[in-house]
């Protein structure tokens, strides 16, 4: 297991750890409910340096990646970011990634454990282009801020008023003596900001955010509370709600797809599915009440399998267990009641987001 760069700081804060795809993450700091409340009512700081990264350099880097992902890359401005999926010729997912176009390279931010898989996929199609792939995980890390007081914290830490960033909008800044890139991360919580920090500056930036945010109620946020926010927001995670048989449209990833760009690997499948107007199944929200289903549990209607559960959390907002899961298109109407497993427990289909 690859340890977190700031393991010792988290240990001092009372962290419990777990492993996600070979990388260490903080599970919680002993009070998950307080962490969740901070992200909803004040400000929370999450160490996301377990995520992996690749850089692409070379004159053809933009045109090469443009042909490999579902999103527009050639038209992406320097300094801008976007969300994209990589799919096979059959339309099933390889991974998803946030892509940042920088002056000298393209940065791909991917889920833990996926760096080697993404690199192998891209290199398979890299033939004559002037483009080169580099492992960038050891070069930088992500510290994630969530909560309505995020802008106040960043204003104080930066020494200048911070204007909120929309999803994937970026801004460079100097924080604790480090050159950082601020990226809007509003998918889980409307005020979120990811701070991309050089690995050597992580400790300084973490300590500065903790110290500056003390009067604002900042709390460190673990993986379990982050997962609760994610499921409430209806955001699928690759490796949990998306796997290598998932087609992006099944997972509601319309925000990862450009319909105006040129050809890319798997485009025909996406185009056919879009033209048809529906997928046989789609990711939906599920209200479980007190039922404690596990990922993979079947969902049934009149004794027939119509889907399965992918993520389950206890939702403070809903006051019950909630889940994400795939449901056949004939049963996606909110309010539809499905049997969980062999019953008698039931799940009610709900629109997303759940929170």
CATH superfamily of the largest domain: Probable tRNA modification gtpase trme, domain 1
Let me know the number of strands: 19
Span between termini: 33 Å
**Quick one: overall form?**
globular
**Coarse structural class:** alpha+beta
CATH class of the largest domain: Alpha Beta
Radius of gyration: 20 Å
CATH architecture heading of the largest domain: 2-Layer Sandwich
How many H/I helical runs? 8
Helical amount among residues, as a percent range?
10-25%
User: Main β-sheet, in a few words?
Assistant: 6 strands, mixed
In short:
The chain is of the alpha+beta class and 355 residues long.
Model description:
By secondary structure, the protein is α+β, with helices and mostly antiparallel strands. The protein folds into three domains: 139 residues, Gyrase A, domain 2, CATH 3.30.1360.120; 84 residues, 2-Layer Sandwich (Alpha-Beta Plaits), CATH 3.30.70; 76 residues, Aminomethyltransferase beta-barrel domains (Elongation Factor Tu (Ef-tu), domain 3, Beta Barrel). 21% of the residues lie in helices and 33% in strands. The chain is built from eight helices and 19 strands. A six-stranded mixed sheet has the order 10-11-12-9-3-13. β18 and β19 form a beta hairpin. It is globular, with a radius of gyration of 20 Å. The model has no long low-confidence stretch (mean pLDDT 97).
């Amino acid at each position: 297991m690859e340890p977190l760069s700031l393991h010792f700081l988290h240990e001092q804060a009372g962290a419990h750890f777990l492993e996600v795809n070979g990388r260490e993450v903080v599970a919680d700091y002993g009070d998950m409910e307080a962490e969740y409340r901070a992200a909803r009512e004040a400000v929370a700081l999450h160490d996301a340096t377990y995520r992996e990264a690749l850089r692409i350099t070379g004159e053809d880097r933009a045109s090469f990646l443009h042909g490999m992902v579902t999103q527009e890359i050639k038209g992406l401005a320097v300094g801008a970011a976007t969300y994209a999926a990589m799919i096979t010729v059959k339309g099933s997912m390889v991974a998803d990634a946030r892509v940042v176009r920088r002056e000298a390279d393209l940065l791909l931010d991917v889920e833990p454990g996926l760096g080697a898989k993404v690199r192998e996929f891209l290199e398979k199609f890299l033939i004559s282009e002037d483009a080169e792939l580099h492992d960038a995980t050891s070069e930088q890390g992500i510290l994630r801020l969530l909560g309505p007081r995020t802008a106040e914290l960043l204003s104080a830490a930066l020494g200048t008023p911070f204007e909120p960033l929309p999803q994937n909008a970026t801004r460079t800044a100097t924080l604790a003596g480090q050159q950082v890139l601020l990226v809007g991360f509003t998918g889980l919580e409307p005020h979120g900001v990811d701070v991309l920090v050089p690995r050597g500056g992580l400790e300084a930036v973490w300590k500065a955010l903790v110290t500056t945010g003390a009067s604002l109620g900042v709390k460190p946020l673990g993986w379990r509370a982050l997962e609760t926010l994610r499921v409430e927001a209806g955001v699928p995670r690759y490796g949990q709600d998306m796997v290598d048989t998932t087609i992006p449209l099944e997972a509601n990833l319309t925000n990862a797809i450009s319909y105006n760009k040129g050809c890319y690997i798997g485009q025909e499948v996406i185009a056919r599915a879009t033209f048809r107007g529906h997928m046989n199944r789609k990711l939906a929200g599920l209200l479980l009440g007190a039922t404690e289903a596990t990922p993979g549990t079947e969902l049934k209607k009149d004794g027939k399998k119509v889907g399965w559960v992918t993520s389950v959390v206890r939702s403070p907002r809903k006051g019950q267990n909630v889940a994400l899961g795939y449901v056949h298109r004939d049963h996606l109407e909110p309010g539809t009641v499905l049997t969980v497993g062999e019953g008698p427990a039931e799940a009610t289909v709900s629109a997303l987001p759940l929170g």
